[in-house]
Recover the amino acids of this structure.
């Protein structure tokens, strides 16, 4: 037998081709639906029927930097305004690692057990290098995210000081129109400036942990002065006695601050997001505050002041955007940057040149 006539053992027979997982017609339908963008009125109608998908799509439009989305987003916000301002807004902040997400999940689950509808607007820090964010709050709040009466929306902080996403204020309006009566805003907690979140909530909660040296920092002004309550988290296991000691230290420090315009006296308490001990007490404290400020009309006064503040902030942001996007400024800005780098002109003189060119 000739050598070339021997067939190799390494031959491949035709196998059975696996069937398609999805029909071609189904793929075409899905692709068509993805390309189809609902109108502003369609999103408004669905939001008012408490549709979470429509709410998410509307928030995406509000957060978008695409100029084509601006008019659509503004139309949705304007239509939702009559249905807003019916919630209680709680801001929660604390340094990274204090357990904000774990606390919010335990606190949110407690509120939904009382029949509350809770929306969590979680702001994740953005990298100053890659400008990306992890947006992992839904993963960390795995129980709350499955709750029918809860909605979690993570957003990137971008370059906003204090860790508040640029469009969080408008997102609150949409969530209120979608039927959520309790809005929780979780900030990055970078410690630079939390005034932005303080200016959009009714109650400001500061989370702390014991044993981190924070007790001695309690007498310092700043974020402590803005807090309506301090909660020492992770008060469980071997940490219970340390948490009680921290609570006493913070309560002493809070007495050194001037009285609040609301007439409320902030206090410190302890809780465990793991054992749920003290979670109910936190809500009871917030409820007492709510009754007080509604009775003395501070609640309405603060809301009105916040609206004025955000009107001015919007003007400032729009002026800043118009300035940097002006064709003339774009060209001059690069020229002045190079001149400043080469010490040919001072930064202040360069800034005045740009401003004068813009206003002319």
């Amino acid at each position: 037998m000739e050598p070339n006539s021997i067939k190799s053992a390494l031959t491949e027979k035709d196998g059975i081709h696996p069937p398609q997982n999805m029909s071609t017609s189904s793929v075409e339908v899905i692709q068509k639906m993805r390309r189809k963008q609902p109108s502003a009125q369609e999103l408004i109608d669905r939001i008012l029927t408490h549709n979470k998908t429509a709410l998410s799509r509307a928030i995406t439009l509000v957060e978008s930097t695409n100029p084509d989305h601006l008019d659509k987003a503004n139309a949705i916000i304007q239509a939702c305004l009559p249905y807003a301002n019916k919630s209680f807004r709680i801001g929660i902040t604390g340094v990274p690692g204090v357990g904000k997400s774990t606390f919010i999940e335990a606190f949110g689950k407690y509120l939904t057990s009382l029949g509350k509808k809770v929306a969590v607007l979680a702001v994740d820090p953005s990298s100053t290098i890659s400008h990306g964010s992890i947006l992992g709050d839904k993963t960390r709040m795995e129980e709350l995210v499955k709750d029918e009466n809860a909605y979690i929306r993570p957003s990137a902080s971008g370059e906003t000081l204090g860790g508040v996403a640029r469009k969080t204020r408008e997102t609150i309006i949409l969530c209120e129109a979608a039927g959520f009566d309790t809005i929780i805003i979780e900030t990055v907690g970078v410690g630079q400036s939390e005034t932005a979140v303080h200016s959009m909530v009714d109650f400001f909660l500061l989370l702390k942990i014991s044993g981190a040296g924070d007790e001695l920092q309690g007498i310092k002004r700043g974020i402590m002065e803005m807090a309506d309550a301090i909660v020492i988290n992770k008060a469980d296991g071997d940490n219970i006695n340390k948490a009680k000691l921290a609570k006493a230290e913070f309560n002493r420090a809070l007495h050194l601050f001037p009285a609040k315009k609301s007439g409320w006296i902030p206090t410190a308490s302890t809780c465990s997001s793991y054992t749920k001990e003290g979670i109910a007490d936190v809500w009871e404290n917030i409820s007492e505050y709510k009754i007080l400020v509604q009775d003395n009309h501070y609640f309405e006064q603060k809301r009105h002041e916040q609206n004025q503040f955000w009107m001015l902030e919007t003007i400032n942001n729009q002026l800043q955007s118009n300035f940097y996007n002006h064709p003339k400024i774009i060209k001059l800005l690069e020229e002045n940057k190079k001149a400043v780098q080469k010490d040919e002109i001072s930064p202040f003189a360069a800034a005045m040149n740009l401003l004068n060119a813009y206003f002319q």
In short: The two ends are 97 Å apart (CA to CA). The chain has a mean pLDDT of 83.
